[in-house]
């Protein structure tokens, strides 16, 4: 088995720009109009404030129209939708995309690949969303798999999009568990939807991907969670890059984009369920899956370039060397907080105050380590609950009243990852019911609490006392 992915294979992956993407082209750009091409990933729902939600709300077009109405140029926006960050990077190298959004590992590749040419060279300008522990990436297996921990993947075939955030998490997880990621497993470089089919058909033993694929497959009962990326306890994030040459030529467009991103961030924080419905409509994902990640207590939608994220980013640089021959990337030169600071100032916001705030901007009432919510069918707002046991009671009461629970969400008792209540591993310990994202996490708890017992979600709902 090859110990490294060849540079040719990586380049080929980056070059696949047409496969699995939909382009919304505007070839009838008015004469003299300034064109901006946005590369986004509709199904990578932690980029929604720079992609799906931003597009649905029309915030960028509205801000550009204000410039036009004030006597400025006319603008045309072209949105291009891709499945991963790799083709966006390829199009930026070709100077065909001006602004793009992607996950942290693809951002590394973007910075490395684009820097050779001054016209394609990019800068990292803002964050779309992040998870402080790394829960945006996960490894799933088939529902009937006997695997209970990442160590059980030794010798297996694993599907991942090489160069993606999901692949980066796989590499770190295997390494930490004593498995050489280049020889201990066979990684099949596949687009997320191809990998999902490969997992379902049994061609691979596991799938390692970024949001929203793990949650989607589990929601569809096509997979179960094996490894929660939060076990790494390393921040993972998504962010915005722009070609430096385009920023220099049209600084007002990039400024309008970042201000529009602030608009979208405000909307998703204040109206998470409405935002989830819009993202579901724009991505084709079930709203229940979108709300898992985009709902309160899920992704931290925060545009600031926090030091802890940049430090983690620097630590990820070694990943480039593990997958191919990439040019060295100076993170300090790649990151430019000037434009987002300016956008904050123009919006009347204090950037440094936001930068220092590490709390999730969209949190549920009460203790974030315990609070969850229940989405009842027909309701316009989800019902918050103070803790997992209270959630079980709310569901039990709703069932007794004949109300349908559309989805219920709880934080993992060990790692805090927001997860589907009915897909969690539940442990009954005394008067409390504790949910865990994985069997391994539940087993760790039971090792320390030998009298605790594993119960099904249905059993927990039935047995919980009102």
UniProtKB/TrEMBL annotation:
Family matches, as SUPFAM superfamilies: NosL/MerB-like, Periplasmic binding protein-like II
Keywords associated with the record: Signal
Protein name: ABC transporter substrate-binding protein
InterPro entries found in the cross-reference section: SsuA/THI5
Signal peptide residues on this chain, from the entry's feature table: 1-18
UniProt-listed Gene3D superfamilies: Periplasmic binding protein-like II (3.40.190.10)
Organism the protein comes from: Antrihabitans stalactiti
Domain annotation SsuA/THI5-like: ranges: 136-274
């Amino acid at each position: 088995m090859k110990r490294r992915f060849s540079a040719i294979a990586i380049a080929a992956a980056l070059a696949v720009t047409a496969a699995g993407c939909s382009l919304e082209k505007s070839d009838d750009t008015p004469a003299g109009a300034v064109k901006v091409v946005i590369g986004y990933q509709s199904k990578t729902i932690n980029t929604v404030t720079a992609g799906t939600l931003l597009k649905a709300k029309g915030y960028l077009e509205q801000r550009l129209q204000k410039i036009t109405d004030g006597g400025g140029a006319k603008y045309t926006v072209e949105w291009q939708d891709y499945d991963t960050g790799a083709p966006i990077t390829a199009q930026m190298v070709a100077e065909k995309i001006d602004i793009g959004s992607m996950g942290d590992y693809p951002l590394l590749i973007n910075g490395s690949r684009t820097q050779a040419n001054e016209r394609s060279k990019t800068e990292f300008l803002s964050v779309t969303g992040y998870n402080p522990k790394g829960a945006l990436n996960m490894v799933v297996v088939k529902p009937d798999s006997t695997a209970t921990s990442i160590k059980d993947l030794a010798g297996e075939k694993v599907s991942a999009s090489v160069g993606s955030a999901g692949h980066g998490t796989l590499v770190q997880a295997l390494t930490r568990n004593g498995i050489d990621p280049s020889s201990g497993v066979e990684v099949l470089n596949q687009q997320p939807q191809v990998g999902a089919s490969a997992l379902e058909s049994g061609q691979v033993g596991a799938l390692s991907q970024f949001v929203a694929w793990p949650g989607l497959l589990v929601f569809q009962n096509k997979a179960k969670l094996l490894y929660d990326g939060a076990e790494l306890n390393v921040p993972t994030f998504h962010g915005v890059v722009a070609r430096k040459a385009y920023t220099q030529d049209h600084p007002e467009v990039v400024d309008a984009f970042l201000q529009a991103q602030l608009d979208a961030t405000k909307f998703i924080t204040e109206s998470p369920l409405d935002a989830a419905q819009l993202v579901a409509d724009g991505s084709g994902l079930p709203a229940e899956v979108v709300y898992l990640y985009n709902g309160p207590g899920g992704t931290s939608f925060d545009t600031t370039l926090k030091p802890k994220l940049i430090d983690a980013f620097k630590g990820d640089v070694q990943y480039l060397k593990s997958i191919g021959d990439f040019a060295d990337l100076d993170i300090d030169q790649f990151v430019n907080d000037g434009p987002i600071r300016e956008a904050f100032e123009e919006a009347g916001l204090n950037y440094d105050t936001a930068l220092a705030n590490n709390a999730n901007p969209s949190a549920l009432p009460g203790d974030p380590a315990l609070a969850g919510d229940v989405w009842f069918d027909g309701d316009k707002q989800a019902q918050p609950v103070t803790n997992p046991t209270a959630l079980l009671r709310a569901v039990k009461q709703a069932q007794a009243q004949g109300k349908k629970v559309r989805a219920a969400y709880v934080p993992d008792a060990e790692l805090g990852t927001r997860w589907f209540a009915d897909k969690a591993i539940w442990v009954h310990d005394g008067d409390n019911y504790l949910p865990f994202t994985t069997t391994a996490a539940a087993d760790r708890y039971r090792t320390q609490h030998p009298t605790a017992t594993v119960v099904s979600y249905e059993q927990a709902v039935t047995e919980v006392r009102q």
